[in-house]
Amino acid sequence: MNLQPKEILTEKDVECGMKLGIREGLATETMNVMTTGAFLTALSLLLGASNLQVGLIAALPAFSNISQLLTIWLVKRYNNRRAISVLFSVLARIPIVIIGIIALFFPNSISVQFIILFLFFNFFFASMAGLSWNAWMKDLIPEKIMGTYFSRRSGYTQTLNVCMSLIIALGIDYMKHHFPKLELDVYGSMFILGGATGLLGVFLLSRIPEPKSFLGDENVFRLFVMPLKDNNFLRLLVFNSFWVFSLNIAVPFFTVFLMKHMNYTLSYIITLTIISQLCSIATIRSWGIFADRYSNKTILSICAPLYIICISAWSFVGIYTEFISNFALLIIIYALMGTATAGINLSLTNIGLKLAPRKEAIAYLSVKNTITAVFSFIGPLIGGLLADYFTNKHLNIRIEWIAPNMDKVFRLLSLNQWNFLFIIGALLALISLEFLVRVKELGEVEKNLVVKIMRSSIRNNLKDYFVLGNMLNWHNHLMAIIRKKKPENLPNEIPKQV
Q: Is the distance from CB of 421 to CB of 250 less than 8 angstroms?
């Protein structure tokens, strides 16, 4: 198989590569649906994973980003991104198949420690392949249609994710209810099938042509130090690192909380995840338009507080025993989380690209990914330790009404092992916003002005922006309460021009 890059690609080569890229994306997404997310967490809990082990599994994808420095060296050394991406993609998928084989045919030998070991190699090699793939696709896809192409590719993969996740969750719940002894066999089969589909994706990947790239002679370690001398980029790194650390204390344990404390089945959990994904898909275009028109930092200052409110709202899940009340609250939380996540991820990616000089972009982004990966790795581990510490600890705040004909207790707040975790994560994330203020972005527009303009746009385009509603200014009230001052009264008139 010839994996050498070509000096010149014809229009037919590019068109063929783009079609293969979509097929490869669907194969890879199939693998990811079967072997990551809620299904991986469910398998870990089935094998008796502790809170620390769940946190470690959640931390592995982020920690594996440290391998990207090695990828830069390999790309500069061999100048063959396709070969590097194909090789490490194969090495990443083989551990997935091995986990499935052991779980299916040697169930007595499978353990959480075994899964963690092989997942480490899976994520480590996948991260190496991913950075090489990004650089490869950047040169292959024409810049004028890059946004259209990747949005179409993302649309296909997200649609596949939604459909497959729900079908698989219903199937697992059925097997768990009627044939509980076969539950581990189901997960083993999923990993084997997922890994095999992933290897099919690697075959499709190997057929995508690669244009030859021209690289400089800079020293890799010198490239790594360069972004750290950029004060504005360093401020972005501080905010981003503190932010991901705060979120990863709480977010990886949402599924664990729903399964262990709320006793939710996978079908309900996947349904909530799908709601979040749909809201993300529905709003990401709007966030992109406003980010381009105003600034990414402004979008962050809107979405980040909204996400913090959602994390805090988890403390109210489970206060009452009614299933409908809790599930309705979770639907609202997941919908707003999906909306906020779309804006946060888009803005963090774009602001990193915007602050990185064109010639040193790969070095800046690698440094950003590597440093934030360390904090993303530490967060879930701290979360797991905190979850163990708060075991059997409770804080209840309630109001009791006593009358001759009625004795009623209203529960306002009930914190247990997991709720403490969510409150701590939300508070730390709120503190991290102070670091965002120090980041400077060219073309930055004052936040309150953008909120007013967005509200006007939403009212005029209610059909397109119905998900956003009046949530855009919630964080103003939150910060006003914390700082003990009244929020600013915003004028009703919206300026016609900015």
A: yes
